[in-house]
């Protein structure tokens, strides 16, 4: 379905996409007790934004991906059906559903879309690091700017952690309807707010808290492996969809709109150089496709690809986040995990040894019988390397 053809449906779809979801199954939410109350109150909006990105990516997916410049920017053409099925599965739309302008609203109103896969009962979304994960303070290590996921292959259970710094990024509504903290001391609206302030290309101003959450959900193999028919064709059963990371390659890693675009261009110009279907095996490619797709639809105009690595740091360089909080390079928003016993949790989960993947690159341990834990982090390691490339 063409984005342009959805113009008359904009208001109707907006009201439906932002309506409270009717859950067929719901994740468990865990919130760090030490978080400020105003941050705690944002979790439902963040979750709703994540579903909005996934649903819109699904209902606007074009039958001929060559007509979609956003898809062409981030994925190989012959992976289109697989990518479509990933978003359909995340949005809980039957894979054989045919979505047209006439049926899009009906689908949004129906339980098949507004509900969630029953597998979501296996998911915990944590704001801050919960006590059942190993107590090594990843969020604190990276000053709070990041997210990661921990998986148990034998049960399919997952915990997704959003660190404190990420929670100060804006939501969709805060970008579209700027709050007082989006204005500078002279009363001028800062760059990066409203459709007019998002520039003409994919960049960090488009990024929202829910983007990190969607990125981590793409890593959750349990949600897709039995329901996406092409899974084994495109994804290794040993790793699932990970984060592209190959020192010395071009690009060296797949984080960010610029690198995700470069990863696709390299896959076309140098087939096989970066492995088997590198774009569909890079979680940030899905996130940036969903973000650019959403803003193109909402703002009713196309965006071009990120032009330099600096486009990934515009919000951080600006330094002002939710409620005026410092999210610049000098920010220190990390915190250690609470002491066990400070909140209620299932003690059975503390018995799972090796409950983490490799910190920097989401390597996943897949030996038979072992827990398969992956983590992804849009974190300081990648950021510092990108920063260094600008010097």
Automatic annotation (TrEMBL):
Q: Which domain of life is it from?
A: Eukaryota
Q: Where is the composition biased (Acidic residues)?
A: 345-354
Instruction: From the UniProt entry, list the residue stretches annotated as the region Disordered.
Output: 331-391
User: One MF term in GO for this entry?
Assistant: metallopeptidase activity
Where along the chain is composition biased (Basic and acidic residues)? 374-391
Supply the alphabetized keyword list: Signal
Q: Where is the signal peptide?
A: 1-24
- Identify the InterPro entries for this entry: MetalloPept_cat_dom_sf (IPR024079)
Q: What is this protein called?
A: Lysine-specific metallo-endopeptidase domain-containing protein
Please tell me the species this chain comes from: Cladophialophora yegresii CBS 114405
């Amino acid at each position: 379905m063409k984005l342009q053809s959805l113009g008359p449906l904009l208001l109707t779809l907006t009201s439906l996409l932002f309506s409270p979801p009717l859950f067929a199954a719901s994740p468990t939410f865990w919130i760090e007790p030490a978080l400020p109350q105003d941050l705690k109150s944002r979790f439902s909006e963040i979750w709703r934004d994540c579903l909005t990105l996934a649903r819109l990516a699904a209902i606007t997916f074009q039958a001929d991906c060559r007509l979609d410049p956003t898809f062409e920017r981030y994925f190989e053409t012959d992976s289109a059906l697989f990518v479509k099925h990933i978003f359909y599965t995340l949005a809980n739309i039957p894979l054989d559903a045919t979505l047209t302008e006439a049926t899009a609203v009906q689908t949004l109103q129906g339980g098949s879309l507004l509900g969630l896969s029953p597998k979501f009962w296996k998911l915990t979304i944590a704001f801050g690091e919960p006590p059942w994960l190993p107590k090594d303070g990843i969020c604190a290590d990276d000053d709070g700017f990041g997210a990661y996921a921990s998986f148990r292959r034998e049960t399919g259970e997952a915990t997704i952690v959003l660190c404190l710094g990420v929670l100060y990024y804006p939501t969709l509504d805060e970008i579209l309807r700027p709050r007082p903290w989006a204005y500078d001391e002279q009363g001028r609206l800062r760059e990066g707010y409203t459709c007019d302030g998002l520039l003409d290309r994919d960049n960090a101003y488009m990024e929202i808290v829910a983007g990190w959450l969607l990125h981590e959900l793409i890593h959750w193999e349990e949600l897709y492996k039995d329901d996406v028919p092409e899974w084994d064709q495109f994804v290794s059963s040993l790793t699932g969809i990970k984060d592209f990371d190959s020192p010395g390659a071009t690009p060296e890693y797949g984080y960010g709109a610029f690198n995700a675009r470069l990863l696709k261009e390299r896959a076309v110009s140098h087939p096989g150089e970066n492995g088997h279907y590198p774009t569909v095996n890079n979680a940030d490619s899905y996130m940036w496709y969903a973000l650019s797709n959403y803003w193109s639809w909402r703002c009713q105009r196309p965006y071009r690809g990120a032009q330099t690595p600096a486009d990934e740091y515009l919000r951080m360089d600006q330094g002002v986040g939710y409620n005026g909080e410092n999210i610049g390079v000098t920010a220190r928003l990390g915190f250690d995990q609470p002491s066990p016993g400070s909140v209620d949790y299932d003690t059975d989960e503390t018995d799972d040894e090796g409950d983490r993947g490799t910190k920097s690159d989401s390597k996943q341990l897949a030996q038979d019988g072992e827990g398969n834990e992956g983590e992804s982090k849009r974190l300081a390691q990648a950021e510092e390397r990108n920063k260094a490339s600008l010097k």
